[in-house]
Amino acid sequence: MNKVIETILNHRSLRHFEDKPLTDEQIKTIVSCAQSASTSSFIQAYSIIGVKDKEKKKRLAEIAGNQGYVENNGHFFVFCADLYRHTMIGENEQKNVSPSIESTEKFMVALIDASLAAQNAAIAAESLGLGICYIGGIRNNLEEVQKLLKTPEQVIPLFGLAVGIPVKLTDKKPRLPLEHVYHEDEYEQNTEVYMSQLHKYDELISRYYEERTGGNRKDRWMQQMAGMLDKKSRMYMKEFVQKNKLDLQ
Ligand SMILES: Cc1cc2nc3c(=O)[nH]c(=O)nc-3n(C[C@H](O)[C@H](O)[C@H](O)COP(=O)(O)O)c2cc1C
Is pTM, for the whole model, over 0.85? Predict the structure, then answer.
């Protein structure tokens, strides 16, 4: 197995970091790797904001639901969908780009671009021996994140990425059975096959939690998912995105 595959397969989210900032060189390497990701039609519709200011990190940690590792890490990146740049380009080139920029398609393109860049950054960081944890919790209050980071209209902060020197490794979380995620030629819709794969995974996850918690926790994955999806969350999002003149048509 080569080193890249080893790094990818060894992934786990880490949430305890040493109190040591990343070097400028490490930050540059991680961002350059993010920028090397493929990008739809060369559009590069994302921006990355590195947050160093202690007060801002503290506030972001609170917004994210008091997640301490948003404040305590080696560096905190915020990945944003960004079509502001392209509005500026439209003005510069005197072209009517608004209807395209405001479309759902272009919003999806920006989300995809930002996510691909982020995952390149995550793998780069992990390959340097650093730990990472994505932070969707910042979407609890995007209005405030936007003010805090002074992002213009058409720049939507999507998630954070906490990076740092790991204090201790956690166990790797098992994923769904490969044959449940990977279909060949057509989507597997046989309910018996489909559900038996999910039940098999339920058992695996239940055992995983049981072993990790000395028997205190045995929840199944389907139970976890249904429990989460049973409640609505961050329902302000559509309004927020549209207020920022994106995903309008
Ligand atoms: C976009 C995104 C947002 C996430 N947000 C959070 C978060 O706010 N807090 C957290 O502790 N983990 C967060 N995670 C990490 C997931 O919980 C984690 O990836 C998942 O449980 C699988 O565990 P693993 O990464 O250790 O394999 C996020 C992951 C992604 C991809």
Answer: yes
